[in-house]
Design brief:
Two copies of one chain form a homodimer.
Chain A (H helix, E strand, L loop, with lengths): L4 E8 L2 E8 L2 E5 L1 E3 L12 H6 L5 E3 L1 H6 L3 H6 L3 H5 L5 E3 L3 H7 L1 E5 L4 E4 L6 E4 L1 H11 L3 E3 L11 H21 L7 E6 L5 H14 L3 E4 L8 H11 L9 E3 L5 H9 L4 E3 L2 H8 L1 E4 L2 E4 L19 H5 L2 H9 L4 H26 L3 H14 L6
Helix pairs in contact in A: 6-7, 7-8, 10-14, 10-15, 11-14, 13-14, 14-15
Chain lengths: ~375, ~375
């Protein structure tokens, strides 16, 4: 079994082209990881996810610990076997969903007690129990439990929260069992404050992790502010470790963050959008429910080679969404994930060629063109 | 382009093994046609439908005329192009759904006026307009508009309805444009009365059709009564034309009806069951939502080679259904269609081998065993 490690193959400015080795295979970076919340990338078979080019998927600890339960998944052979995904899996710590989904949370130094949004049952998540749950799931990448403060919190509150996250990170490190090919990532917090972010990077690198995530962004601060945080932060993270921007983002977010040295992303955007009728194209996004697609014989994106675009018209997809047919979300999710993976593949090639700036310029120029109106 | 024709390759008792040639390719019979109501076999890509072994699918004229409209589908290249199904397509006449789904129906000698269940708009379906809509859809098999009386109707009412169906069949025949590879099927009515069924067969064969459907069954009369109708009827249908039992049925219905000389079937059962958690197996059906599957590591059917069974446990499918994940209906629909197509393939091989009785005995013996309890 391979050691858990990021090999840097090329770089272009701050951007890096790498390969992350894990216990369940490797992932070419920069990479986008589709979100498989409850052990399934919604509306996609595992084979279809792999066919889009995805090499690693994300599972949500909060959802899986509540249903079907981490012990159940372990008894069934782990999350890879359970969800028929033989490749690498990253699981989050559960903390973010506790904050966004559960009821009646109580935070203490020890951890967080909450009521399940499914059945109201009480559960506790501590740094140690989160690491243990992720071990039961057999995640290749385990994330430390962190606290993600609200956008509206003042700097003192964000600093206090960050310090708790650092203490939890230390406890997570102690709790994490070393196994070849398995890695533990720390999460940098500190809101939009460069000095806090720098402190957080220092604290986490002091503890020492296999990778470093940037948390607490993409929560409403806007792209410019987010990029500003990355500009200040990334140079304080170790060169040789993967950098993961959590919960990001739009295609333009990915292009800009890769240029700033981020290696890994996850976001529900391509999958959630695929279920609500938003499709991503080289010329910006379209809403397939819009009446102008009623008799539009073109595919979603004429340059796209995904199964949705090679076999189906916008008119057909429009019809499927109007008729509430499951195949609509299935095909549009497939297309969107294919679009995201193609974008990442393009970024990787551009970095190798030392042409990331040109790639980025071309990307933005095309996005600005807007969709071609039907004839 | 081939002529529309059924070639009989082998027979075993009343059962026939054939090959139906159409404008869009051939279909091995006896055959089960998945139902693609609104231009999609629910929760399946067209490629997946083909991968189960299906060679012909059914489209519902009622649904497609209301949304997106037959003219729209014609402008987009016809139903094959629209739904990415290059193979043969059979469309029904729309009559059955008018009766079961629409509001405020008015029947006259001319046809039926009804309000759309989608937006309340008024539409009229006549024998001629139904044939025309099916021509716009580019159906390989067009069905005549018929009236399907209720189980509870008395013999006089059923005879009157049958006679209307015959007059409509004559008008449909007049309206149908002859094109190589395209066929028009008449529909035998007459309820559960052998003499009416015989009259109906005589009237329709007098008009002359490319195939003969048996309508008005599988509406609550029970399997024994249905088989009794087939026993009395089938010898009155022409040897060389395909025989289609509409809206049937369970696996046992298919086995029994094939033995009685039926060549074609359609039913929502495998797809609808797939969305509600019922899975078909060689040892009978299971409800995947049942708690006993919570940690059941076995596939739905250990002998099955479908993607749902080769990659996933019952426990995983159980989880997907409990979590309302789209992948649950996707996988179970795929399995059920695969099961139905495998059953038909088995029946075809058995007829070729002159071993249909043995096949049927073995089928019933296995079904009677019931599901193996988890260890």
């Amino acid at each position: 079994m391979s050691e858990f490690a990021l090999e840097i193959l090329a770089s272009d400015g701050a951007a890096r082209r790498g390969r992350l080795q894990t216990a369940h295979g490797s992932m070419e970076t920069p990479a986008f990881m589709p979100v498989g919340t409850a052990g399934t990338v919604k509306a996609m078979t595992a084979d279809a996810v792999a066919a889009t080019g995805a090499q690693m998927v994300l599972g949500n600890t909060y959802h899986l610990m509540l249903r079907p339960g981490a012990e159940t998944i372990q008894r069934l052979g782990g999350l890879h076997e359970f969800m028929n995904w033989p490749g690498p899996i990253l699981t989050d710590s559960g903390g973010f969903q506790v904050m966004s989904l559960s009821k009646l949370r109580t935070m203490t130094e020890d951890g967080v007690t909450f009521q399940s949004h499914i059945d109201g049952a009480s559960h506790t998540l501590t740094p140690e129990s989160s690491v243990e749950i992720q071990r039961l799931l057999d995640a290749d990448v385990t994330m430390v439990l962190d606290e993600c403060p609200a956008m509206s919190d003042d700097k003192d509150a964000i600093a206090k929260s960050m310090e708790l996250t650092h203490r939890w990170a230390e406890r997570s490190k102690q709790a994490f069992a070393l196994r070849p090919g398995y890695g533990l990532f720390g999460i940098v917090q500190g809101g939009v404050f460069d000095d806090l972010r720098e402190q957080s990077a220092a604290a986490l690198t002091g503890i020492g992790f296999d990778g470093y995530a940037v948390g607490g962004l993409a929560i409403g601060e806007g792209q410019e502010v987010m990029f500003g945080v990355l500009d200040g932060l990334v140079s304080h993270l170790p060169e040789g470790a993967p950098r993961y921007l959590m919960g990001v983002g739009t295609p333009a977010d990915l292009v800009g963050a890769v240029a700033r040295g981020i290696d890994m992303f996850d976001c529900v955007m391509p999958t959630r959008s695929g279920r609500t009728g938003k499709g991503f194209t080289a010329r910006g996004s379209i809403n397939i429910r819009n009446a102008r697609h009623t008799e539009d014989a073109r595919p979603i994106d004429e340059a796209c080679t995904c199964p949705a675009c090679t076999g189906h018209s916008r008119a057909y997809l429009h019809h499927l969404f109007k008729a509430d047919e499951i195949l609509g979300p299935m095909l549009l999710t497939w297309h969107n994930l294919h679009y995201y993976q193609s974008l990442m593949a393009g970024l990787r090639v551009a970095i190798e060629a030392g042409a990331l700036q040109e790639f980025s310029n071309e990307f933005h120029a095309r996005q600005a063109l807007g969709d071609i109106e039907p004839a």
